[in-house]
Design brief:
The complex is a heterotrimer of chains A (about 240), B (about 210) and C (about 325). By secondary structure, chain A is mainly α. Helix content of chain A is about 75%, strand content about 0%. In chain A, α9 (about 180-185) packs antiparallel against α10. Chain A starts with a helix and ends with a helix. Residues about 225-240 of chain A have low confidence and may be disordered. Chain B is an all-alpha fold and about 210 residues long. Chain C is of the alpha/beta class. Chain C has twelve helices and ten strands. In chain C, α2 crosses α10 (about 265-275). Chain C starts with 9 loop residues before the first helix and ends in a 6-residue tail after the last helix. Mean pLDDT of chain C is about 85; it is low at about 1-35. The chains are: A mainly alpha (about 240), B mainly alpha (about 210), C alpha/beta (about 325). The interface of A and B includes residues 64, 67, 235 and 239 of A.
């Protein structure tokens, strides 16, 4: 039988859709792991990026540091963390090293875009807001963040897509997720399973990209579109 | 850390670093040579943007072992095999940034250039590309740094640069080469990033003093 | 971003086989008794210490006989180095790689179950499978690296475990840990069930006898783990290998897998000598030095060759 036919057979085999080893459960694990990593990265990177961008000084050093962190292969992060702390512990065997590696992957685009977005707010607008008597916090939340939102969301989108595509790593450290199909298929010389796994990951990444794109369009204020938004996203893609 | 390992392997570490630099340099260079026309095409003919980004995105999702297993019967364990893989993975980042850079050129500038009698080619070369340069170089910076982290995958075919140290460290549960490989990767990334940022400033004097993106 | 994942599509195999045919057809004839002088060959190794050590032993022994040898170590996995072997050293591939009789046979025959506990029979079947690929396997070494099942010393003492059959009353409360292939391979989970009647409570996917399995055993995350019998860290980490009293495992003696158009009488003689001199206790010792004491595989190989008179000091 040819490989495409094998893959179709794989997808139409009821057993592959049932139980802890089935597609729905693996998909859920993959989404959970990705979401947890993205939430953690958002919690770390957004306040920092917003603060640095608002403050305006010394930020570019921090951003460049974060960016340079991309040069560390996720595999190395995985191995170092695993050697240091083992595979045990919350939220399940083998999950932690993968979680850390994914957070490390998601922080740079989030941080960079938050910073660049905040820095990109027109100085005249900031001055006007100050003139209206806004405090620092009001300025951040009512003026700067809403204006920087398209870039923040673009950073989130980039980070999320990368995380979803890379969460297959979790299977390497004995956890679950869609990477299991790829790693196990490889171990078992089961080509159909490998391709099925890769397709599922690709689909999930695509869904993430489209879904967050839709959120981005829905959330961003009308005043920041369309001409303006175009340029902002352009920069966002470039820096993310 | 086993410092004696480091001092005994000075030559190996140096060779690995050199290989890493070469693999990254060639990958980004070739990636740029391929993605520039792709990016321009995507900009010129809007309908090609989706397919071009989709194609480079699809390349990006091919697992490295699959890619190399497919290539070895043709190009062996050669540097060519390594570069084909690395270039394939850099395209997405580079094309995205070239497209974004060109889109960042304000419509008014385009119209003004048209009004001044620039023909499309001249307008592209003398107005749009220079203006898109900072963003394109920002993209090259990210692509370069990301590629430095990516080179490890070519360790599969024995062309791993610093990745060979990292993989050795993983397989022998040996932290020293793992840390040495990672630290040198970061060092290379810092040097490349700072160097490219300098080039960007030289090539776009008008943006000096403006915020850094 | 790292992309560590493998896909090996069937086309890979097809293309590789085709390439082997083409190369076989274009090859410059078989030079079975050429002199060693100046003849060059490329030796590959898989990315774990044992393979690198043995590859360097082959290299040193052949160099001592006047061959120009290049070692390409740490090559991916079989998905990478077998196609490279079919390509040959002249085409940026490799000419020779240390392999395991039973495991390689079950890899090239896609798990047809031809490997057994009989070394000669398994080696003969392996050669038959390799032949159409333009490859062959030389004489296997007595040194072997079998799949084995281990428990911690504490568990062994508590439940008085010496052999796999001793697990029968306990298995239903135990977790088994092994590589992802375990649930489908006859030597692993299915074999344990069928041959020994061992049904474990759960199965945890780790690596195939690698550091993760060892760590998980030591940490108590699994009770029984698949390890490699020649792994130096098994003894170092206080693990006890259970005797395979019903002979479930197939033979996994180390064997040079080599291109037919490269092998000549001198190479055959040299490699046979290395294989004959190597034994399992040596292998365990060398592995321990590489993975526990972190000695370099090539240095270990060199010292071993000197000790055994292949090279002079």
């Amino acid at each position: 039988m040819s490989l495409p036919a094998d893959v179709v057979t794989w997808f139409t085999t009821a057993d592959h859709w049932r139980g802890d080893f089935g597609v729905p459960h693996r998909m859920l694990e993959h989404v959970t792991m990705s979401a947890a990593a993205i939430v953690a990265a958002v919690v770390i990177a957004l306040p920092l990026g917003i603060w640095l961008g608002h403050r305006g000084r010394g930020g570019s050093v921090a951003i460049n540091l974060a960016n340079v962190g991309r040069a560390v292969p996720s595999l190395a992060i995985l191995a170092l963390f695993q050697q240091a702390f083992g595979l045990r512990g919350w939220p399940g065997f083998g999950a932690r090293p993968a979680f850390v590696a994914l957070v490390a992957l998601a922080v740079p685009p989030l941080l960079t875009n938050a910073y660049v977005g905040m820095r990109g707010v027109d100085r005249d607008v900031v001055e006007a807001a100050r003139g209206m008597g806004m405090t620092g916090a009001e300025l951040v939340w009512r003026v700067e963040v809403p204006i920087a939102l398209p870039l923040l969301l673009a950073g989130l989108r980039t980070a999320a897509v990368q995380v979803v595509a890379t969460a297959t790593l979790a299977a390497v450290t004995a956890w679950g997720g869609l990477g299991r199909f790829i790693v196990d298929g490889f171990g078992q010389q089961d080509d159909a399973q490998i391709v099925a796994g890769a397709l599922l990951v690709g689909l999930l990444a695509l869904a993430t990209e489209l879904g967050l794109g839709w959120v981005q369009r829905a959330v961003v204020s009308d005043g920041l579109r369309p001409d303006r938004r175009r340029r902002e996203t352009a920069v966002a893609v470039a820096t993310a | 850390m086993r410092w004696d390992w480091v001092s005994n392997h000075g030559a190996d570490i140096l060779a690995a670093t050199r290989q890493h630099v070469e693999l990254t340099g060639i990958a980004v260079g070739l990636g740029l040579a391929i993605s520039l026309p792709l990016g321009l095409a995507a900009r010129r003919w809007r309908w090609t943007e989706g397919p071009v980004l989709g194609f480079t995105g699809a390349l990006f999702t091919i697992p490295s072992l699959a890619l190399f297993a497919l290539l070895v019967p043709f190009t062996g364990l050669s540097r060519t095999t390594a570069e084909i893989g690395l270039v394939a993975y850099t395209l997405l980042i580079l094309v995205r940034n070239i497209v974004a850079g060109l889109e960042g050129v304000p419509e008014e500038v385009r119209e003004a250039a048209h009004g001044l009698g620039f023909r499309p080619a001249g307008q592209l070369l003398r107005v749009e590309l220079p203006l898109a340069l900072p963003v394109i170089i920002a993209g090259i910076r990210i692509a370069t740094v990301t590629t430095i982290g990516l080179v490890t995958v070519t360790g599969l075919i024995g062309q791993g640069g610093l990745g060979a140290l990292i993989i050795d460290g993983i397989n022998r549960d040996f932290r020293t080469p793992l840390v040495v490989g990672s630290v040198l990767s970061i060092t290379l990334a810092v040097l490349a990033d700072v160097g490219l940022a300098g080039i960007a400033r030289l090539l776009s004097p008008w943006s000096r003093g403006a915020r850094e993106a | 971003m790292t992309r560590p994942f493998p896909v090996k599509s069937r086309t890979v195999g097809t293309v590789a086989v085709l390439a082997a045919f083409v190369l076989g057809a274009c090859g410059s004839g078989k030079s079975s008794t050429s002199t060693a002088a100046g003849k060059s060959l490329v030796i590959g190794s898989a990315p774990f210490p044992e393979s690198e050590i043995v590859a360097n032993m082959y290299a040193g022994a052949l160099q001592a006989d006047g061959y120009q040898v290049t070692v390409r170590s740490g090559l991916g996995q079989r998905e990478i180095y077998l196609p490279a072997l079919e390509q040959g050293g002249k085409n940026n591939g490799i000419d020779l790689v240390p392999e395991y009789v039973g495991t390689l046979l079950e890899y090239v025959n896609k798990g047809a179950g031809e490997a057994s506990g009989d070394l000669d029979a398994t080696a003969t079947k392996l050669r038959a499978r390799l032949d159409p690929m333009g490859l062959t396997a030389l004489t296997p070494s007595p040194a072997a690296d079998q799949n084995a099942f281990a428990v911690t010393k504490a568990t062994a003492d508590k439940d008085k475990l010496k052999k796999l059959s001793d697990l029968v009353p306990y298995a239903s409360n135990m977790t088994l840990g092994a590589g992802p292939e375990c649930p489908t391979r006859p030597f692993c989970q299915p074999g344990l069930e069928k041959t020994y009647g061992l049904k474990f409570k759960t199965f945890r996917v780790l690596d195939s006898g690698g550091p993760k399995t060892i760590d998980a055993l030591v940490a108590g995350d699994i009770d029984v783990g698949l390890v490699f019998s020649s792994d130096g860290s098994v003894a170092a980490k206080n693990l006890v290998v259970l005797d395979d009293d019903k002979k479930l495992q197939t033979v996994d003696n180390i064997v040079p897998a080599i291109r037919k158009d490269v092998v000549d009488d001198t190479i055959r003689k040299d490699l046979d000598k290395v294989s004959a001199a190597l034994n399992t206790p040596d292998l365990i010792q060398l592995n321990k030095q590489a993975s526990v004491d972190k000695a370099d595989p090539d240095v270990l190989a060199k010292a071993w060759l000197q000790q055994h008179g292949f090279t002079k000091k």
